[in-house]
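Hey there, shall we discuss this one?
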Amino acid sequence: MNELTICFIRHGWTEYNHKGIFCSEIDPPLSVYGVRDLANLCKEFPYDPVDKVYCSPLLRCQMTAAIAYPSQTPTIIPDLKEMVFGEYDGRLAQEVHQEPYYQQKDQLGDAFRMPDGESFAEVAARMSAAMHSIIEDAATHQLQHIAVVSHSIAISSFLKASLDAPLTKEQLFLPNGMGHLVKLNTSNLPLQKGYLHYISPVPLGCKRPDMAQSPYMKHN
């Protein structure tokens, strides 16, 4: 069996994340705290070595890849970028949560579209196309372990659409600098729906913050 493991990692903390500000096409670096926090995390709970790293073009992801995998030169994949938030980009999440349009999000589910931005379904489709190309590249070069450094909604939307068994929102939640480990059989190309099998959160052994602690959650 030709098994491939994929380690998905969300980028480390930026100043926008600290403040709970929507950030997609805005391109901030990791904050001073974000660099230190990620370096300490990788020192105490290092990510397993991989054969290749694929990365979003945004600076926060490239900085994360350099800290998590200092011996690797990432391959930049444009479609690994975050969901396009449109009019919400650069705005406080707590303000956006109060808007009547945004309050339709749970009801509309994957069809919900950010104003002048993407829907969750479009993000999942974009990420799926990017991941299919990445998996084909890994299979062609007979790679066994790869890492994908991307963004919270991009990763969770893709996993929601691709796993063989569903995870809850809480299980899909990605703290900054942390990720999910999955596997698949590359003998089954072209890929079918539900082709990914979930292994575990990563890095192994570290305590993960609860989703309710995120600056992007509603705090009444």
Q: What stands out?
A: The helical segments are 15-19, 32-44, 59-68, 93-96, 105-108, 120-140, 152-162, 169-172.
